[in-house]
Design goal:
CATH topology of the largest domain: Elongation Factor Tu (Ef-tu), domain 3
Order of helices and strands: EEEEEEHEHEEEEEE
Number of helices: 2
Helix content: under 10%
Strand order of the largest sheet: 11-10-9-8-13-12
CATH superfamily of the largest domain: RimM
């Protein structure tokens, strides 16, 4: 089954089993709209009983997680939902999962690297690209100026890297 990462459990919050939840959805509260969330392998399912916004995260109560020890055991667990439960993205929107693995080429068609991850540290999305031939990965802003073309069908995108790269 094709799954999309939509949240990650952070640290325990308080002593009653609540957890901090980092949502990767455009609207963080939408994590409650898709039913039970699963681990990547589908071995565990988590139902959100209650959720509230907090500074930079959500605070969630998960069914069956009743105390701090149980909540701490879930730290860093990534939560997925079946792709078919998600809305189809607009023409100018993408799920991070669709971008990872795309081949990056320059506008002239020269192979540049491969998208390894998409990050957002608060100032906008960044593509982490592993350059052709190896070496340190590069972070490029995921903007129309830096990434003018994306072709999901052909699994590639065009990048305009900074002059010093």
């Amino acid at each position: 089954m094709d799954r999309v990462l939509i949240a990650q459990i952070g640290a325990a919050h308080g002593v009653r089993g609540e957890v901090r939840l980092k949502a990767f959805t455009e609207d963080p509260m939408s994590v409650t709209r898709y039913g039970a969330l699963e681990t990547e392998d589908g071995a565990r399912r988590f139902e959100i009983e209650a959720v509230r916004p907090a500074k930079d995260v959500l605070v969630a109560r998960l069914k069956g997680v009743a105390d701090r020890n149980a909540a701490e055991a879930l730290t860093n667990v990534r939560l997925y939902v079946a792709r078919e439960k998600l809305p189809k993205p607009a023409d100018d929107e993408f799920y991070y999962a669709d971008l990872v693995g795309l081949a990056a080429h320059t506008a002239s068609g020269e192979a540049f690297g491969t998208v390894k991850a998409v990050h957002n540290f608060g100032a906008g999305d960044l593509l982490e690209i592993e350059p052709v031939g190896g070496g340190a990965t590069l972070l490029l802003p995921f903007t129309e100026a830096t990434v003018p073309a994306i072709d999901l069908a052909d699994r590639k995108l065009v990048v305009v890297p900074p002059a010093d790269v």
